[in-house]
Amino acid sequence: MVASTDELDSHMYQTVGHDVIPLYAKCFRNPAAPNNADPLAAPDLPLFRRAIAGASANIAMTYDHAGAATGDGDGHVVDEVEDLYLLLKDVVTAMPEVKGVSVGAILSSYQRVRVENVCQRLGLQVFGYLWQGDQVELLASMVNAGMNSILIKVAAMGLDRRHLGKSLMQLQPHLLKMHAQFDLHPCGEGGEYETITLDCPVFRRRLVVKTAETIMHSDDEIAPVLYQRLVDVDVEDKTELVPYEQLRADLRAQLVPDTVAQIVEDATGVTLDAVATSTAVVVRAEKKEVVTQPQVKSVGSLLAVTGIRAPADATLENATRYVMDQLAQVLQSRGLDTKRHLVMVTVLVKNMADFARVNVIYGQYFGVNPAARACIQAVLPCQVQVDALAVAHPAAPRDNLHVQSISYWAAANIGPYSQSCTAASHVLVAGQIGLVPETMAMPSLKTPSATFQAQAHLSLRHLTRIYDAIRVSPTRDVVACVAYVSSPTWFTAARQVWTSAMDAPVLAVAVPRLPRDALVEWVAVAHHPEWRNQYNAAHARLQNPLDSDDEEDAPIVAARNVKVRAVTTRDGEVTASRNGTLVTVIARGKVSAPAPVGSEWTEADVRPVLTDLVDDVGVALAKVQADQKHVLNVRVFYVAEMTTGFETVAQQVLVSMGPVSFVPCTGIEGGAHFALFVHAYVE
């Protein structure tokens, strides 16, 4: 931007008040100075600046820098985001010890996505500790911390010339009043106002505005846009500066939350039943049967591709390329690709210790906004297996939440995946484990039970915060969940943690190992409420079956999450759940006759139980006005001690229902020997 320009028409940057930026080099305390040295005598911090030459060329919510770096070959930047890239590139070149960038975004995904894109290309970590913070609390914390930030631009109803030059502390009551009356963002995240900071705890000198000129930018009767040009600003030394390390400790105690302590406190109100003892499952040698051909089915605007297994003798890298190439070929045959059209991928590995190597190859198949992903270790007969869900048409919309910034909000992505992906009203969230978001470390407490509680509550908080960020109600819109646990010991605890906070049905499955050696991973599916509201408007005549005298015959209403439960004659339990177009069925089966000592069950033991269970699934689907033609995929969990031919038998029984994938595991809650998770789409 031209130096004399005050206000730039930018989607990315605040430019009002930019003339004072060079003064900040004199104001900030130098953290590299000796702790006992005079802060005022320390060298100024290095300052890097660059003129904004580009414009808001790409204003989509997804930013791809391809084609945005230069114009017609003369080296000029096309998009203003590339100015930031070039500036930070200068910083990294001059100061290679710089490893991260702090971003003040609270609600704006537009800015966050672009900074993350730039930093990813430069190998820098983004720190967004304000992201998704409560704005009333953030405003209070800034005021209480002693920040003196004044308004230098106003652009909202309730803010005018009188408020320019006033501090956040002075305006806090008024901003909260406007928030209550007109939903004004207390921190100005809707563009209601802009500020410039004159003083804060990490300053050794403060700015003093001597002269300011008010400029009318837009004379709107309801919401005039005005800003201040800071004509004369002095730099003033501060006295009574405490040592820097003491300052850091004081600020940390005042401002930094202890996430683990909060989670432990939240968990103390949950009384757990005695943990049910479970017979440990001996993981036998892997079965020799390997299904390598993907099973594919399209229902409406969604496409399921399941059961892609690598050849048993393939090396890890070759196995990963094989399954991903198979997936890519299926998509390409339909005019789709892995970068733009995948919604959810479940990756099963034989050994979680190898997953970093899998991840390197896996990431090569994705671009800016990858699909959501869940990863588990299973008792596989091969190195890698993938199941996927994609949009069925090239032009079908797909929305991602892809947060790479480390924050207090929820865990940042630790691989090539998005936190959530929404398509055709179905919301798929990546498997959530209990990482402490601000440190990305797994909590470990004094006892295994306490550690499980901390991880379970923290990962569930991640899940609910992701839903909140995309305007999905965790209690109203979630339809079903699979809780993967690292041991059958945690079945009871996992179910109690889930049901204490959520209404949707859950299936708990034990697997040998989870990412980062987590004790639990939640993988849930939900229905997006914005689509549901449209559905309700078109189907307002339908009666709610929960209000009907005859639940068997009453039609379904998408506004309610209708659950149907049935118990089979062989101790299997079937739970159907529907919300709008999304239907799930969870069914558990148990072979009543014990396996002979030293041998496995036979096909004659297993087939009748599976057949009865499939019949009950059909009944459950009918009760929520769905049938087998709506089934996208069926995931079959089975304990590793089942008969060698179990997958063959199950495939034969389930062939009419839809694509089937198998997950050999180490246990299923309720003592079940196998379980079905059915995902259906009624468009």
TrEMBL record:
Top-level class of the enzyme under EC nomenclature: ligase
This enzyme catalyses:
diphthine-[translation elongation factor 2] + NH4(+) + ATP = diphthamide-[translation elongation factor 2] + AMP + diphosphate + H(+)
UniProt keyword annotations, A-Z: ATP-binding, Ligase, Nucleotide-binding
Molecular functions per Gene Ontology? ATP binding; diphthine-ammonia ligase activity
UniProt lineage: Eukaryota, Fungi, Fungi incertae sedis, Blastocladiomycota, Blastocladiomycetes
Q: In which pathway does it act?
A: Protein modification; peptidyl-diphthamide biosynthesis
Q: List residues of the Diphthamide synthase domain.
A: 75-219
Q: Which Gene3D superfamilies match?
A: HUPs, putative n-type atp pyrophosphatase, domain 2, RutC-like
Q: What is its EC number?
A: 6.3.1.14
Tell me which positions the record assigns to the signal sequence. Answer: none
The name of this protein is Diphthine--ammonia ligase
SUPFAM superfamilies in alphabetical order: Adenine nucleotide alpha hydrolases-like, YjgF-like
Biological process terms in GO annotation: protein histidyl modification to diphthamide
